[in-house]
Amino acid sequence: MAQPSPIEELVGFLASPRQEIRMIACGNLVGYSSGPQNSIFKPPGLKPIRDLKILVRDHPAISANAVTILMNVSDDTAVLEQLANDDSFLELLLSLITNPSYPGADGIAMLLSNMAKHDSIPEKLLRLKRDKPKPEWNVSNSENAMDQLMDLFVKGSEKTLNKQADFDYLSYLFADITRHAEGRKHFVEAQEYDNVIPLTKLIVFTEHKSLIRRKGVASTIKNALFDIQSHPTLISESEVNILPYLLLPLMGSEEYPDEESLDMPSEVQLLPPDKERESDKSIVSTHLESIMLLTTTREVRDTLREKQVYPIIREVHLALEDDTVRDVCERLVNVLKREEADDSTQGAARVEEDDQIVDLA
Predict the structure, then answer these.
(1) Which residue stretches of the chain have pLDDT < 50?
(2) Please, what are the domains in the chain?
(3) End-to-end alpha carbon distance in the chain
């Protein structure tokens, strides 16, 4: 029988009764949790995973390292299954992420995002009611898990709730939740908690300084727009008014003739001369795909034409030498510039939904 390697022996110390030993073992093992070498955490029976779940309840420093390891190994199907099917573990993660003094809150946001690749997690989060966070924490006044997570994302964006967390990766969780019909419904309908449509809270971050936040929000918007029935509400200036938040990231410092610019949404007129277009081409592509989804119905296509969306798409096509971006631009132009023969609808091609696994070495 082969002798265990020193690293495998170190994994065994995760279950040590002595806290100082657990702390040393967990801290030293973080670096082995990404890449092929993380197989040390996945022997038959997955005992190290069970030990790590217990360590999440340990000293905050041990807990944060255990969360990082679990996040890095959660792309394994067997590990994901064990994590996703443990309701008490999900509650533990929620209790920690809503605690403003917990140092590993961003790690939990990443872990929750990865766990949401399991179809059961979005359903659980959408229906889960739990204790409200302590009032003095100023986190949330709702007993719904989704409301609490949204409040964390909005209120904590500048580390104003937790000095060690910005909750940006919750946007990836929201993107995964909106891959499901029930999740899309949640984000496009006003919630009883505050009578606000959740997507309204997210769209204001399409030009945020954080690339992670912008990416996750863009994907959440795109996925939510597969709920075609919500388009009139989302496009309405008196309700969600989503269009300016999709267009602004696409726009640079270019100038438009008055006959074009005066009909554009007021929010995108008279932009400063130093206005910069979104630098990440994958986000540009995602926003273009969102607009493509909005062309599904004749009603909204007419609105996009009235709001002079075409000239903006034209400038994106001219400015960016990227095959994916230009392909979506060309498809959009074909839809927006064509003659409408009748009131039939134009089916929008489904685009790939965000299924990125977050990995932190």
Answers:
(1) 345-361
(2) 6-245 (1.25.10.10)
(3) 32
